[in-house]
């Protein structure tokens, strides 16, 4: 995997494609809004480099859209996909390229979660239920700091939520090993944990939205993606806090951003693990991420309900929630004890 993090990288996209051996034709995937932010720029620079470039607008992250992209791939026959956008665009590119046996290049436009570098995919079925599966990581990641710094602050805060989640995810992985004998390599777990700790130490830089802070977050998100590739699963980066978020996706009328939800989930799961949950909450508050149901924009009822069903989302993924989960009373006490609900 080639990783480049720096300034003014979009204008070099043609050079990077050629260095990777893609000289003739590429297919650019981007979003409806991101097309005007960075997608069209990438297309123009590819054309300047005399690389044929078609494009496809990803409107939503569904399996139907993945199949549409596959049809375009068979028709256009590109050498690679270039995914320009956030997690939704990149996830569609991951699965479509994996199914069609093509490499893909990740060009993130926001540092909102670790999907920019991981092999993990999160998509929706026709009934809107979310599904997580493993596909392939990008062949290369080209992260233009200038572009990412222009993204809304909310997306950066969401990325912080996804990073801090590694604290409880790693605890869950080690618990699963002790209770169930489930192996997950310590190197992958240590890398995920290091990423979370480094970002938390950089809270002042991130809170100021400084370039150094944004770079730190981008590099940490990429490192977490690498950790998942090493482990061959999302285990080092996704535990009980992610199960809570997935449960919210299933039941809440209007879920919040992925990183926002897992951040709030991390506060509560850190409490269950007897970790310093207040430090997690303070970190999220300082970077501008939600710490309560009200700040998430989700009714308190759904937070409690999500806590009671989270263990059922991935029954084979053992976490601090155990195999029977939390009762309504226990879930409500947990959410109140951490100040997530009043």
Describe this structure in words.
- The longest helix is centred in the middle third of the chain and has 21 residues.
- Helix content is 55%, strand content 13%.
- The protein has 16 helices and eight strands.
- The strands form two sheets. It has a six-stranded parallel beta sheet, sandwiched between helices. A two-stranded antiparallel sheet has the order 6-7.
- Helix 3 packs across helix 4.
- With 342 residues, the chain is of the alpha/beta class.
- The protein folds into two domains: 149 residues, Rossmann fold; 186 residues, Dehydroquinate synthase-like, alpha domain, CATH 1.20.1090.10.
In quaternary terms, these chains amount to single chain
The CATH topology of the largest domain, please? Dehydroquinate synthase-like, alpha domain
Number of domains: 2
Q: What summary fits the major beta sheet?
A: 6 strands, parallel
Order of helices and strands: EHEHEHEHEEEEHHHHHHHHHHHH
Per the principal axes of the C-alpha atoms, what is the gross shape?
A: globular
Given helix and strand content, the structural type is: alpha/beta
- The residue-averaged pLDDT reads 96
**The level-1 CATH class of the largest domain:** Mainly Alpha
**In percent, how helical is the residue content?**
55-70%
Number of helices: 16
- Alpha carbon gap, first and last residue: 46 Å
In percent terms, what proportion of residues is strand?
Answer: 5-15%
Overall number of strands: 8
Low-confidence stretches: none
Gross CATH architecture of the largest domain: Up-down Bundle
